[in-house]
TrEMBL record:
<protein>
    <submittedName>
        <fullName>Alkaline phosphatase</fullName>
    </submittedName>
</protein>
<dbReference type="InterPro" id="IPR038607">
    <property type="entry name" value="PhoD-like_sf"/>
</dbReference>
<dbReference type="Pfam" id="PF09423">
    <property type="entry name" value="PhoD"/>
</dbReference>
<feature type="domain" description="PhoD-like phosphatase metallophosphatase">
    <location>
        <begin position="142"/>
        <end position="472"/>
    </location>
</feature>
<dbReference type="InterPro" id="IPR052900">
    <property type="entry name" value="Phospholipid_Metab_Enz"/>
</dbReference>
<feature type="domain" description="Phospholipase D N-terminal">
    <location>
        <begin position="32"/>
        <end position="130"/>
    </location>
</feature>
<dbReference type="Pfam" id="PF16655">
    <property type="entry name" value="PhoD_N"/>
</dbReference>
<dbReference type="InterPro" id="IPR018946">
    <property type="entry name" value="PhoD-like_MPP"/>
</dbReference>
<dbReference type="InterPro" id="IPR029052">
    <property type="entry name" value="Metallo-depent_PP-like"/>
</dbReference>
<dbReference type="InterPro" id="IPR032093">
    <property type="entry name" value="PhoD_N"/>
</dbReference>
Length: 503
């Protein structure tokens, strides 16, 4: 083997260890890779899930129905010569043989490397890092992504994201899709097939996550940096809202609990479900530079108005309607009011800015997005007033967008309250295109929207004290592996200037 670089270690999955990792074979329990998440100044969550057969129909990944001890270690160098901590965790069948290690007492603002061992096998190595100390104004490279539909394409965008080597990755939902094979078809046709039925039971969800997480491009993205994740609808059921499914289902509460449990088992998060709730809203401070307010816009929302869909609906304006629920909304507004961060960033799921889909007279609005919860959005926008630089990050809509959030969206002269950056999908929608024939007319109808692109990809951001730069990164195709990536457009948000400036 030639010289080992960080890129070959993390992107290529080479584990240079004191013990030689066995090559992948049916007995290897680390087929789903490794991950880390939710860094703090002194710690991070390390994750793996044991699965000898990721596609096993019972959801147990070919593992025995007994607990397994898993050794872990974390080091300050990629060759693991300087072990900082090590320990033993227990992978239990009732938790899908997942492991969540909440490592503490690490140094702030440091890069670390970690790995696991069990049954005579050593996992690939992962790279992670802690957040800077509270007083630090350390720069940050952060990527965010959403919407990876396995059937619609190859996860090349995850691989390209990993090659960009960000410090932090946010995933804003639709990590996996719940449909039975062939039900959800991309415009150019499906190019891969999912195993198993539509995800309804815990075994179904575990099997589906197993198939997704066995993908090597996704594993590369998890191994390169810590993630902070929130879900959207497809982790449970299309367009679910609070306790309501999209279509009537006799056993939706049981399905929702199963989905919540599987999500916890497969994500590098600290909290497990408690009863019928999995609390995902939380804050991730990055020194004095940025605070990420990670939101859950599914679990506590009111049902969509007027039966959902694209329409003009007076009920969407009702002041009692909530997207976040009372407790989460108060938590967010209190956090914004007391923040001293240079950048306050909302990591959330659905389109925040108002968007009129009708060209000319009349309005047509998407009721599953914040347009269906207009009063709730107004309360959040009012909460931006004391914030130095409010930025909303969004997934869900399968295209890249950049928008200025207006106090009165239909008045171009209205004050700009904040900015919104929307990531396109990893694969959902298939290969896509640069734009639609209607795009110029849509943008003219919505002058606060400054950018649109319909390729697949992600957004790469660079935070500094003086500006936030956003590069909209897109791949040319997902219908086959190996697409190159390019920057489709770049925007800068200057400190104290609530506007998008195209570079």
């Amino acid at each position: 083997m030639g010289s080992v670089t960080r890129r070959t270690l993390i992107i290529g999955g080479v584990a240079v260890t004191a013990l030689t990792a066995a090559s992948a074979r049916p007995s290897d329990p680390f087929t789903l890779g490794v991950a880390s998440g939710d860094p703090t100044p002194d710690g991070v969550v390390l994750w793996t899930r044991l699965a000898r057969d990721p596609l096993a129909e019972d959801g147990l990944g070919g593992m025995p129905s007994r607990s397994t001890e898993v050794r872990w270690e974390i080091a300050g160098d990629e060759r693991f010569r300087g072990i900082v901590q090590r320990g033993v965790a227990t992978a239990r069948p009732e938790s899908g043989h997942s492991v969540h290690v909440d490592v503490r007492d690490l140094a702030p603002g440091r890069e670390y490397f970690y790995r696991f061992a069990a049954h005579g096998h050593v996992s690939r190595a992962g790279r992670t890092r802690t957040a800077p100390g509270p007083a630090e104004m350390t720069g940050l490279t952060m990527a965010f992504a959403s919407c990876a539909q396995f059937e619609h394409g190859y996860f090349t965008a995850y691989k390209r994201l990993a090659e960009d080597e960000p410090d932090l990755i946010l995933h804003l939902g639709d990590y996996q899709y719940e449909f039975e094979k062939g039900v959800h078809v991309a415009p150019n046709g499906n190019v891969r097939v999912v195993d198993g039925p539509a995800t309804v039971t815990l075994a179904n969800y575990r099997q589906r996550y197993g198939q997704y997480k066995a993908d090597l491009d996704l594993q590369a993205a998890h191994a390169v940096a810590p993630w902070s994740v929130v879900w959207d609808d497809h982790e449970v059921d299309n367009n679910w809202a609070g306790g309501m499914p999209d279509k009537p289902q006799a056993h939706f509460p049981e399905r929702r609990r199963a989905a919540f449990q599987a999500y916890y088992e497969n994500m590098p998060i600290r909290r497990a479900p408690q009863g019928d709730e999995l609390r995902l809203y939380r804050r991730l401070p990055w020194g004095r530079l940025a605070t990420f307010h990670m939101l859950d816009s599914r679990q506590y929302r009111d049902d969509q108005a007027c039966g959902d869909g694209l329409k003009d609906c007076p009920d969407r304006l009702l002041p009692t309607r909530t997207m976040l629920g009372t407790a989460q909304e108060n938590w967010l507004l209190n956090g914004l009011r007391t923040s001293s961060a240079r950048w306050d960033v909302l990591g959330q799921q659905v389109f925040f800015s108002q968007y009129d889909h009708t060209i000319g007279t009349g309005e047509t609005l998407l009721l599953d997005a914040w347009d269906g919860y207009a009063a709730a959005r107004d309360r959040v926008v009012a909460g931006f007033a004391p914030v130095r630089n409010p930025v909303v990050l969004t997934g869900d809509v399968h295209a890249a967008w950049g928008a200025e959030i207006k106090e009165r969206w239909d008045d171009p002269a209205s004050k700009t309250a904040g900015t919104e950056l929307v990531s396109t999908s990893i694969t959902a929608g298939g290969d896509g295109s640069e734009e639609y024939p209607e795009t110029p007319s849509w943008l003219a109808e919505n002058p606060h929207v400054k950018y649109f692109n319909n390729r697949r990809g992600y957004v790469l951001t660079r935070f500094s004290a003086g500006e936030l730069r956003a590069d909209f990164r897109g791949v040319e195709y997902v219908s086959r592996p190996g697409s190159p990536v390019s920057t489709k457009a770049s925007f800068v948000i200057e400190d104290r200037v609530r506007a998008l400036h195209r570079v």
